[in-house]
Q: What sequence folds into this?
């Protein structure tokens, strides 16, 4: 009977072991760091949800940093942006982001308001007949005096992009008086309805009461 060949065990030298340990340390640190970040992220989200107990619809935690950034850039309360988002599309949870009268996107801009009322097709309620290629073109928006903003730097100002929509709303509200503290006037400019104004102000005041706590929790994500 032929003898089975013994397979040689791969022997690692002390130098190879040391090298392997050195290579594994960064990977272990990255995995541990990712775990900690995930744990703290979910912990902060649960805290934010707890702060909002009693609200009919809670402000999505992941949207709050966007509201804060847009609010700082255009000098308007971030809670006002959240209130508009709540009233317009229930934080983007409505069945469609296009209204029966033609308002578009997360914050429900009429195309002529977003692109600019100086566009030759704009009249009436502001639906216009603006080509799709022009609707998101920052140069076209600048030309016609619109409020659309390319917030994420992708070369488009898109009302169906959450960041662009929120920053565009902040731009509109700021230029409509919110920057000077004329909150009610700015909201009315957004939608000429007293009922609409009352709804937005209701949620704005509700969010203002807890804004310091929410901001504290959000800032903890970045520590």
A:
């Amino acid at each position: 009977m032929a003898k089975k060949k013994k397979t040689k065990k791969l022997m690692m030298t002390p130098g190879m072991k040391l090298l392997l340990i050195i290579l594994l340390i960064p990977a272990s640190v990255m995995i541990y760091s990712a775990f900690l970040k995930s744990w703290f992220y979910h912990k902060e989200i649960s805290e934010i949800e707890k702060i909002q107990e009693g609200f009919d619809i809670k402000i999505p935690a992941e949207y709050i940093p966007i509201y804060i950034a847009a609010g700082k850039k255009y000098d308007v309360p971030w809670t006002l942006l959240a209130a508009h988002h709540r009233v317009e599309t229930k934080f983007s949870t409505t069945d469609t982001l296009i209204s029966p009268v033609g308002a578009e996107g997360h914050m429900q801009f009429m195309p002529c308001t977003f692109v600019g009322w100086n566009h030759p097709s704009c009249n009436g309620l502001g639906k216009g007949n603006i080509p799709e290629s022009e609707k998101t073109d920052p140069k076209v928006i600048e030309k016609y005096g619109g409020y659309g903003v390319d917030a994420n730097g992708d070369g488009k100002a898109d009302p169906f992009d959450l960041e662009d929509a929120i920053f565009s709303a902040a731009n509109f509200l700021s230029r409509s008086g919110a920057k000077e503290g004329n909150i009610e006037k700015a909201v009315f400019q957004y939608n000429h309805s007293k009922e609409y104004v009352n709804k937005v102000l209701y949620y704005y005041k509700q969010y203002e009461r807890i804004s310091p706590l929410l901001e504290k929790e959000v800032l903890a994500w970045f520590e």
